[in-house]
Structure formats: structure tokens, C-alpha cells
Amino acid sequence: MKHRALVSLVAIGLVTLCGAAQAGAPTPDASPPSASARDAAANGEQQTAADHLAAQFAESWNRRDGKAYGDAYWDDAELVDPSGQVWSGRAAIIQTHVDLWKGPARDTHMTAQVRRVQFLTADLFIVDIDTAASGFSPPPPGAPNGVVRTRLKHVVQRRNGEWKILASQNTFVAGPR
Description:
The chain has 177 residues and is an alpha+beta fold. Helices cover 38% and strands 33% of the residues. The longest helix is centred in the N-terminal third of the chain and has 29 residues. It is globular. The N terminus is likely disordered.
């Protein structure tokens, strides 16, 4: 008897749900019709932010503009440079680059290209950027033809509608690419 009552309750529930769906009412387990559109828009926004960060990286590097370079990072960001040194905070990240631009990187030219964007959440993504810098004086060991290639991996976060780098890892690419 208990089994028949349960089957009847399930059947009544299905009829109610079907009737509600036919009447245009949302079903309890239906995802909002705009969820995939929101995801596509968020992914598009993240791709745009990733492309902007790559361009900002190269442009600010080529101008040796510490403020513009630092504008890409949150105040509490962290950067691990190719030597493994950890730079904590925007101010330290800016200063290490200003010092680099006063020394062996003073005549460099940088290019940057987004290689991959990995979408994590609506407010967080990872972007991989491939870079090439020429003009180091002297070029570091392992830089074929004086071109230093690196792979940047940025964790990018949106806060108050603004996308900036929260964490970054920069790795030298040894030999030809």
C-alpha cells in the first residue's frame, strides 16, 4: 500500500510539473534560459580582459612605465620572477621592473601574445601569455639570438568590476621555441 501511495504522489507531482511547464511557469530544476548566454558573455569579457592585459604588459614595458605596468596588478598581488624570486605587492612588482629597465632591460622591446585563457568563475580566470624581449644588454645565458622568451601565467581576478592580476608566474623558455 505504501508503494502505491508513493507512486501516486510521484505521478501527481509529474502532472503538476508538466502542467506548470505548459503554462509557462518555470520548473524547479530548470536552469534559467539565460545561463548559457551569461556564461558566454562572462567568457567573452574574460577573453577581452586577457587580451587587454597582454597589450598593457607589452606597451608599459616598452615605455618603461612603472605606474602603467603596476596598474595591471592588485595591491596584494604576488609575482614569481624567472629566477624564482617572489615579489609581494604591487609596489615591489613595480620597483623590480623599474630597476630592470634602468639596467640590462633599458633598451628592450617586448611583445606579448595570449596563448590560452582558462575560465574558472565569473570573477576569476587564468591567462597564459607568451612573451619575447629583444635588446637586453647583455642578454642572459640561454637567450638564442639575444631574444628572451618567457611564459607568463596570471591568475586574474575581478573586483568591483575591474580585472587585475592577483598572482603571476614568469618562466624563461630555454632554447628555440
